[in-house]
Amino acid sequence: ELGKGIAEFYDESSDLWESIWGDHMHHGFYDAGAPATITGHRAAQIRMVEEALRFAAVTDDPLKKPKRIVDVGCGIGGSSRYLAKKYGAKCEGITLSPVQAKRAQALAVAEGLQDQASFQVADALKQPFPDGQFDLVWSMESGEHMPDKTKFVGELARVAAPGATIIIVTWCHRDLSPSEESLQPNELNLLKKICNAYYLPAWCSASDYVKIAQSLSLEDIKTADWSENVAPFWPAVIRSALTWQGFTSLLRSGWKTIKGALAMPLMIQGYNKKLIKFAIIACRKPM
Ligand code: SAH
Q1: What pTM did the predictor assign?
Q2: Where is this region: SAM motif III (predicted)?
């Protein structure tokens, strides 16, 4: 089943990713059209976090800044620890991968953040938290894994405190034109191959997310297409896989990881065809 595949995929591949790319398992944000520098990728990943916070107008004001944060689909906790430090907040991360949860916790201890960041294996669609707990609800590149987007956003809204900010940064497919019922067969075909490789269920568009947020009475709903800003990312990941270290680690990692690596050019194709969109959706839970 899907959840098991996701857990195994990240159990298997997270070490390799960390050894080459560090603790942020998400796209970097680059100036559109500017050439990416080889050393700039880590900075671009941090910039992604900062751009998301800025887009959602999360405040640095000591009185109003987030104090309790949930990181839904936390990977090895790169965002959690960054946000916990930045805001002096408490952050709880959930992931389906036991290996990730353990590694995230170990890194928190190593950084002296054990009282501020904690991690557990849990399902985003059935979060182990009571209602109305968090003033920042953060999902960085996990939404694309969720088989039920309505339930997903519903859970984000449920655990959000009144007035909380909800930020979803995720892979989407392009918006459909008014005359279209669905994507074109060749587009569906490409997405199917990508979904197979990365343990993803069917995708939706950014405007589908907006509709879901509206149906849940969320407020200040904003969305943007950052596809141009992430364009240098996949070529950089491919280059890193083609280094000696990348290549040998890849061969040692396992079949799920290799399958993922082989699908990387498909992501570039999807972006080039304007089929894949890198989207941010931000909103607020009513007071
Ligand atoms: N947000 C992290 C990791 C992104 S990778 C980062 O930016 O570094 C996608 C993450 O989503 C993985 O940790 C995976 O375990 C998690 N995930 C996917 N489906 C999930 C689900 N149903 N419940 C909880 N986590 C999920």
Answers
A1: 0.97
A2: 159-168
